[in-house]
Fold this protein.
Amino acid sequence: MTESHASLAALRRIVGDSHLLTDPSLRAGYEVDWTRRFGGPALAVARPADVEELAGVVKVCAEAGVAIVPQGGNTGLVGGGVPRNGELVVSLARLRDVEPVDGLAGEALAGAGVTLAALQQHVRAAGWEFGVDLGARDSATIGGMVATNAGGLHLLRYGGMRAQVIGLEAVLADGSVVRRLSGLAKDNTGYDLAGLLTGSEGTLGIVTRARLRLVPPLPGRSVALVGLPNTAAAVSLVARLRRAPWLLAAELFFPDGLELVARHSGARPPLAGPHGAYLLVEAAAERDPTDEMAAALQEESSVVLASDPAGRRRLWELRERHTEAIGAQGIAHKLDIGVPVARLAEFVERVQETVSRTDPTARTILYGHIADGNLHVNVLGPAADDERVDDEVLELVIQMAGTVSAEHGVGVAKRRWFAADRGAADLAAMRAVKDALDPRGILNPGVLFEPS
Ligand code: FAD
Ligand code: 2HG
Ligand code: ZN
């Protein structure tokens, strides 16, 4: 019996026959990511039922030197949650327990495999809200969102995933379990392991449960779409709206993206054009904030407002369906960049020129979270493995004091630019942490760092 056959037999004993998938047709959905740009063959897919089974799986892998790729909802966009070269995929999808909401502390305890939509439903039923929201809510899991430190649509109000994590349970590379889940809002004992694991993209440990901060619900909602001449006008408007107590979201998109979404979904764009840029704004308060938002936007010449749920949803779909509408055109190069807000308008101009210069046939669709300086540069045209446009755009981002990954993570997609972005000293410190916690390099090799 070969070593990997012996490992598979041991893994089968731990998770049971029906939760160790070796058949290629059963593995297939776990072997390619959402972008269709990344993926490869897995040794097998293991689906442990709980933290004890997962710890057993990791111990077997540690002893045999089998590499592991943790996977949640597989909505990641940087190739970090799919195998590359015969690793074991460990799916956390079965860790779906949620405990009753702790109303005294305003906290929820959820398993790594709970989807964001399921968590939202659970906490809303108890009179609370969760501070992070994103378009992939029906599939993205709490474990994946912790691992990627997901940002999303409400970051300007509540912060990203790291700001919501109060405590974590996780399995480390030797199969040991770290656990700090009793919900201490203040806890200054030693290193912040939960903070370190958040955003570590499955390279330091496998998250099994998270204790999460909740926020009070804001039932009064209103959404506006504003047509503006250009990005600079959108940035100035957001600067003004940022001071409003009701601002929940501010999202930017452009006419080419809007047209693509309208064609893809059959929706009719609600504002008569032409406009150089579109700003979608959501207001949230205890009582209906429509009048306040309308007053704040009264000097804008092209605005549509919706406060009923169906109208609000229709406006949001024009923004949220960008990813899917672009995906229907082909395999996009997705560059999730951030630049200082003061340089956003300059970046929008320069990135178009940069892409056209590098590949005149490429199409660039831009959209994103304007208040965070985070734009999703989606480039259609270049072959999946042709990285000339990626190189030029990310070089521009670094020159402009930005980041090559604002919210999706580095994964395998941005690995080549990680050192240029963070610098040698940061990289060496991170490498030292990785080597200390995962000396054999079995957790998600190839993500963040070159595989050793
Ligand atoms: P996966 O894709 O399964 O994995 C992502 C990474 O986390 C991988 O490196 C994987 O190894 C690791 N991982 C997964 N689970 C665990 C675990 N339990 N323990 C340790 N490591 C783990 N992202 C944003 O930040 N903001 C957005 O607004 C946003 N919108 C999106 C909209 C759409 C339509 C889509 C398709 C994606 C969007 N994303 C967004 C990206 C994606 O949804 C997030 O990165 C999300 O956090 C991934 O969660 P997941 O469960 O799907 O993780
Ligand atoms: C969003 O904000 C997501 O819609 C996805 O982060 C971005 O597909 C993308 O490039
Ligand atoms: Zn985003």
Remarks:
- The first helix runs from residue 3 to 15.
- Residues 77, 135, 323, 334, 376, 378 surround (2R)-2-hydroxypentanedioic acid (ligand 2) (CB under 6 Å).
- The domain at 107-215 is CATH 3.30.465.10 (Uridine Diphospho-n-acetylenolpyruvylglucosamine Reductase; domain 3).
